[in-house]
Amino acid sequence: MKGDHMPLFTITLDEDGFGEPKRIEFTADDAHQAFYILENERTGRKAILWQGQKRLGALQREDDGVWKVAG
Question: What is the C-alpha to C-alpha distance for residues 8 and 20, in angstroms, rounded to an integer?
Fold first, then answer.
């Protein structure tokens, strides 16, 4: 149906000493799906979450495995 499409999100991860650079695109009802996608990333990884061209925020995996969200 027209208007029922889900937004496109992008996660970018730079080469940061914790892993290779990545660009991951996904569609979802909202941005929380990013945490499931990033579940297997190593501690210390930094990611930027985008919705289309809009930067939603930076995510960093802490030592306890929890992702810290910053603007």
Answer: 23
Q: State how far the Cα of 13 lies from the Cα of 46, in Å rounded to an integer.
A: 6
DSSP 37-50: HTTTSPTT-EEEEE
- Compute the distance between CA of residue 50 and CA of residue 48 in angstroms, rounded to an integer: 7
The structure's pTM equals: 0.84
The structural domains of the chain, with segments of one domain joined by +, span: 8-70
What's the rounded mean pLDDT across residues 37-44? 89
Q: E strands of the chain, at which residues?
A: 8-13, 22-27, 46-51, 54-61, 67-70
